[in-house]
Design a protein that fits this description.
mainly beta; Neuraminidase; 4-stranded antiparallel β-sheet; 1 helix
Length: about 300
């Protein structure tokens, strides 16, 4: 009669021993390693610029090559470096072109005769601007700001200005705001237009004596807009908060023009005046203080109107 409780006790002890033994044989759980979050992979740096009546493409690590000829003005490049847009001078008219940098197929969007001499003004740099996150462009024809898809379809007016000339658009990172240059007979200032409220307002208030604004470029981080202030023979970079405020000086040497941000918002390509002899070349500068990083072109005839994307 006592054997049954003894057997039961042995069975319980055996199960307990097995359980303990199993626990001892298992490995301790490994610590979970948090992987660092990586930002979007950027393509190698790509630069577009104009020189000697041609549009040039310079990809980091490769020699520059001409991709369009003729009187070419003010190129723009999309974020992944596959599409370019630029103005082609047709005499009394300016033609907007879109070029696929992979297939080399081109689209003729249309031609405008309202641009006049200001449409070719290097100080304004009336470049088209790619809409962030979309294969679409916004551009100014001197009286209106337009939007169009990269295949040339859905051309529509975004903003119209009858009392002055509007030029040189740049888009906010969310695509909901446009900064542009408003030129009157008396002054030339930076304005901002909201696609949500459909209202435009000035961001700068320079008199002709103070200088003229041109070539704005909205930072990819969204916090400020960099522009060029032209005074007498000098051209310097200035920055202003995107919502407006007090402008701050970025460069002071008087030979910096046409800023184009890289996608990170850390650096800009600019037209930089070199000496002995004096020519305009394309240089890379820091976005915060405008300090020189690297000269990207060395062309005897000079280079102008930079547009960059990718990793620099």
């Amino acid at each position: 009669m006592r054997a049954k409780p003894l057997a039961a006790g042995v069975l319980v002890l055996g199960i307990l021993a097995g359980w303990l033994g199993g626990c001892r044989s298992k490995e301790a759980p490994k610590a979970v390693v948090q992987q660092a979050q990586r930002g979007p992979t950027l393509p190698p740096g790509v630069l577009l610029y104009t020189s000697q009546g041609k549009l040039w493409e310079f990809r980091r690590g490769e020699p520059p090559q001409a991709i369009a000829t003729g009187a070419v003005w003010f190129p723009a490049i999309n974020a992944d470096g596959t599409l370019a847009a630029y103005w082609e001078d047709a005499g009394s008219q300016m033609v907007l072109m879109i070029l696929n940098l992979v297939s080399h197929a081109s689209v003729r969007v249309g031609e405008w005769n309202s641009l006049g001499a200001l449409g070719r003004n290097l100080n304004l740099r009336n470049a088209p601007a790619w809409v962030p996150g979309r294969d679409a462009l916004r551009f100014a024809d001197g009286r209106q700001i337009w939007e169009v898809e990269a295949d040339g379809t859905n051309l529509q007016t975004v903003y119209e200005q009858q009392e002055a000339g509007c030029f040189a658009v740049t888009n906010s990172p969310d695509g909901k705001h446009i900064a542009f240059v408003l030129a009157t007979e008396h002054d030339q200032n930076l304005w901002e237009y909201s696609l949500d409220t459909h209202k435009a307002q000035p961001l700068t208030d320079y008199t002709a004596k103070d200088g003229s604004v041109g070539a704005p470029a909205w930072s990819p981080k969204g916090e400020r807009i960099v522009y060029v202030l032209y005074k007498a023979e000098e051209a310097n970079l200035w920055g202003i908060p995107a919502e407006g405020g007090t402008p701050t000086s970025i460069t002071k040497e008087g030979r910096t023009n046409a800023p184009s941000w890289d996608p990170t918002g850390k650096r800009m390509a600019v037209s930089s005046g070199t000496q002995n002899p004096f020519t305009w070349q394309i240089a890379l500068v820091n976005g915060d203080d405008g300090k020189f990083v690297e000269q990207l072109t060395s062309v005897t005839a000079g280079a102008a109107a930079p547009a960059i994307t990718g990793q620099w």
